Amino acid sequence: MYDRRDQDQGTGRAAPKHRAPATEGAAGVKAVVFVCVTCEAPLTGPLTRLPAVPEAPYYEWWDAEEPGPSPPTVPSGCYAIETEPYGAPLVVSEAPAPAMPRYGTISNEHGQWLVSQGPRGNIVINPDDAHGLELQHASSACCGATPTGGMNQLCACGTLVATLCSDCCCPYELHLSADHVRAAGL
Question: How far is it, in rounded angstroms, from Cα 166 to Cα 144?
Answer without folding.
Answer: 5
